[in-house]
C-alpha cells in the first residue's frame, strides 16, 4: 500500500488496486475562520496545500470518517464530482445526499468492494460531555488479500473502541489522527501524546502514521513537539510523521 499525506487528515491511499481519497479538505491557507472557543484565533487552514489538487480529483472512491469542516469542506464539495462513490458512516448519509452526491455507500458494519473489505470502527471524539457534543465519528479497517491490514482511526481519543479494533484486527499499519485538538474547556478531542503512547504499547506489531498535525488552529500538538516526545520516550522506531505531500509505502 501507498499512503500519501495531502494535508491534515486528507490522504491519498493506494490499496488493493484502488485509489482512495480520505477526508477531503481543499481550502486555501486562511480561507476559513478559526474554530471558536479555542486557545487562538488563527484562520484555517494554517498552511496551504503543497500539491496540485487536480491530481486527486478522480479517486475510485472517497472514504469519509466524518463530515466536520476540517474533513469535508466547501472547497472539496465544489471541486469533487458528485458522481464519485463515497463510503461513510450512517450519521453522514443524509448530509451527503443533500449535497447532491449520488453514490453514497453507508458502512453500517462492513462492505466488500471487489475484494476490498471496508470495516467501520467506533471512536470517541473527546471524553465526557465534550465527546457527546462533537457527534458521531468513525474509523475504518481496510483488508484485502496480499495487503497488510490498515486501520484509519478517524477523530478519536484512546478509548475502548480503538483498543477493541486493535485487538480484533491486529493492523500492521495504523493511521492515527492526532494533533491533540482542544477547546478552552475539556480535554483533547483527538489523540494527544498519552493517547499515542497507549496506541504504541497496545499495537507492538504496527507501524503508526501520525497525521492531523500543524494545519488547524485548535490542534495544539505539533510535529516538532510530538517528534521530540517520541525520541525522549524511545518510541520513534515504529512512528512515521510524514510531511505534507510525502508518500509512505508499506
**Overall shape:** globular
Total discrete domains: 1
**Count of DSSP H/I helices:** 6
What is CATH's topology name? Metallo-beta-lactamase, Chain A
CATH top level label:
Alpha Beta
Distance from N terminus to C terminus (CA atoms, Å) equals: 5 Å
Overall mean confidence score, pLDDT:
97
State which percent range the strand residues make up: 15-25%
Write the element-wise H/E pattern from the N-terminal end onward: EEEEHEHEEEHEEHEHEHEE
Helical content band: 10-25%
Low-confidence stretches: none
Query: What CATH architecture do you see?
Result: 4-Layer Sandwich
Spatial order of the strands in the main sheet? 6-5-4-3-2-1-14
- The CATH homologous superfamily corresponds to Ribonuclease Z/Hydroxyacylglutathione hydrolase-like
Largest sheet geometry: 7 strands, mixed
Count all strands and give the number.
Answer: 14
Q: From the helix content, strand content and strand pairing, which structural class follows?
A: alpha/beta
Explain what this protein looks like in three dimensions.
This protein has a single domain (2-241), classed as Ribonuclease Z/Hydroxyacylglutathione hydrolase-like (Metallo-beta-lactamase, Chain A, 4-Layer Sandwich), CATH 3.60.15.10. Helices cover 19% and strands 24% of the residues. It has six helices and 14 strands. The chain has helices at 74-79, 93-98, 129-134, 160-169, 193-202, 223-232, and strands at residues 2-7, 10-15, 18-22, 61-63, 85-88, 103-106, 110-113, 116-121, 139-143, 150-152, 173-177, 207-211, 239-240, 247-249. The strands form two sheets. Strands 6-5-4-3-2-1-14 form a seven-stranded mixed beta sheet. A hairpin with a 2-residue loop joins β2 (10-15) and β3. The longest helix has 10 residues, at 160-169. It is globular. The mean pLDDT is 97.
Amino acid at each position: 500500500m501507498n499512503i500519501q499525506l495531502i494535508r491534515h487528515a486528507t490522504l491519498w491511499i493506494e490499496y488493493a488496486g484502488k485509489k482512495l481519497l480520505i477526508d477531503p479538505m481543499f481550502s486555501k491557507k486562511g480561507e476559513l475562520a478559526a474554530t471558536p472557543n479555542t486557545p487562538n484565533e488563527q484562520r484555517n487552514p494554517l498552511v496551504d496545500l503543497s500539491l496540485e489538487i487536480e491530481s486527486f480529483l478522480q479517486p475510485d472512491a472517497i472514504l469519509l470518517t466524518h463530515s466536520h469542516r476540517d474533513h469535508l469542506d466547501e472547497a472539496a464539495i465544489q471541486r469533487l464530482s458528485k458522481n464519485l462513490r463515497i463510503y461513510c458512516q450512517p450519521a453522514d448519509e443524509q448530509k451527503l445526499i443533500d449535497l447532491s452526491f449520488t453514490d453514497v455507500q453507508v458502512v453500517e458494519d462492513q462492505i466488500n468492494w471487489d475484494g476490498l473489505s471496508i470495516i467501520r470502527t467506533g471512536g470517541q471524539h473527546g471524553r465526557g460531555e465534550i465527546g457527546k457534543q462533537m457527534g458521531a465519528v468513525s474509523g475504518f479497517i481496510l483488508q484485502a488479500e496480499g495487503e497488510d491490514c490498515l486501520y484509519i482511526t478517524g477523530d478519536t481519543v484512546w478509548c475502548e473502541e480503538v483498543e477493541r479494533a486493535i485487538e480484533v484486527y491486529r493492523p500492521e499499519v495504523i493511521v492515527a489522527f492526532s494533533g491533540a485538538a482542544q477547546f478552552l474547556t475539556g480535554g483533547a478531542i483527538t489523540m494527544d501524546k498519552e493517547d499515542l503512547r497507549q496506541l504504541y504499547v497496545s499495537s507492538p506489531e504496527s507501524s503508526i502514521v501520525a497525521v492531523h498535525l500543524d494545519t488547524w488552529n485548535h490542534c495544539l500538538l505539533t510535529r516538532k513537539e510530538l517528534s521530540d516526545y517520541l525520541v525522549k520516550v524511545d518510541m520513534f522506531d515504529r512512528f512515521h510523521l510524514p510531511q505534507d505531500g510525502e508518500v509512505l509505502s508499506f
